[in-house]
Structures are given as structure tokens and as C-alpha cells.
Task: structure prediction
Amino acid sequence: MHDAAMTGAFHIHGAGRDSRWLVTCDHASNRVPDWVAGGDLGIAPADMARHIAYDVGAAGLSRALADRLGAPAILSDFSRLVIDPNRGEDDPTLIMRLYDGTVIPANRRLDAAGAQARLDRLHRPYHAALAVLAGQRDDRAICAIHSFTPQLQGRPPRPWQVAVLHSHRDSRLALPLIDRLRGMGFCVGDNQPYNGHLEGDSIDRHALATGRPNVLIELRNDLIATPEGQAAWAITLARALDGLLEAAGL
Result:
């Protein structure tokens, strides 16, 4: 895999870097490949620009953070609405038909062969590449970057600026990171706005199953909607992650 190599499934940034950290961005892109419903899922462009299609700002933040850490990063190159790489293959939400009030017409009509093609050409190659990167060091640690919308339709506003999600099976890095970020003055969600463990998700598959240290960081997407915001948060997160592995004895 070459630095900044592009495929239909993923983009690698900083290949060959020697940091312990691997930065992952499961929901980096809102791209719909041409071979999927002619490149159009049947929803409005405004919806494709929303959080339902990808994690707004997460790609730029992931690249900037990887640069700060001297780490490689892997970013998906397809919309979560095409198929969600942060879901196990047998998860019923792997291919969403309705998301935050928006019906996805191309997914409602999807047959088994169409779903299989998305698995074979997108989901599985992304995870295969992630597994290779994760396995390049015996002491690899994973930092997963996501973003969340400030408010879902019909729901109250979300107050957190940043959140750290973690599984009950491994909170070795998450809990001290939460303490560090709160100590820096931020409103930090602890397994909010989502629970941190979903069987078969990326962290479960590439970190929990192998015993790798891991953190999953969620940024409120209005804070990282611009390159300036992404750069600023990359500095903040790199500072918060500095020495975290060693302090946790990992």
C-alpha cells in the first residue's frame, strides 16, 4: 500500500510512518461509487452533505491529527449510506434504509446481490487494509476519529464539544483521556451521545478482538467544519494523546 494510495474503498495517508498510533476514519467520505445505483442513492444533495452520509469534518481532522502524531491514517472512500464500515457484516444497520428522517430509495430496493457487491468491493477491502496497517507493529494502538451532529431532528441539542466512546471490555486509554480533555476545560461526553461498544464494529474487530489499546474520539461537527477548526482540534487532541500510552502503562 502506497502513501496516499486511492482505491474505491479507502485512502491511506502517511503510509510507512513509525508511530505506535494508527488513526482510522470509518466515515470519511460521502462518495457514492458510479457502480452503486449510478452514483445516486436517490436523496437530495443537501442530505448527502449531512451527517447521515458521512462524518462531517472527520477526514480533515484525521489527516491533520495523523500528521501531528507522525502516524499513518486510513480513511474510507465511500458513504456510510452505501454501506457502513463501522458495522459488522451481519448488523441490520449495515445498509440503512432510513436515517434521521430521510428515506434512502436506492437502499430500499437493494437485493442480496447488490448488498454482496458492496461488501466485496468496499466494506471488506477497507477492513483488510485496516488490518494490515494495524498489524505492522506488535504494539499498535488505534485512535478512531468520528464526528456527531449538534442535534438530531426532534431531539434536544447536544452540549458536548468532544466525546470519548469506549467498551466495558477496555477503558484503559479512554478514561484517562476523558480526564485530560476535561482538565483542558472542554465539555466531554463519556459514552455520549452514543454507547461505546457495538459488536462487530471497527474497534471491536481491530482492537478489542486483538487486545490493542484504543480510543474512539467524537467531535461535534460544527467545531471541525472548516480546515481551521480541524487544524486547531488536531493540535488539541495530539496534546491530549501525548504520553497517554506510557502513562497508562501500555
Remarks:
- The CA atoms of residues 56 and 182 lie 23 Å apart.
- Helices lie at 45-48, 58-69, 105-108, 112-134, 174-183, 202-208, 227-241, 244-247.
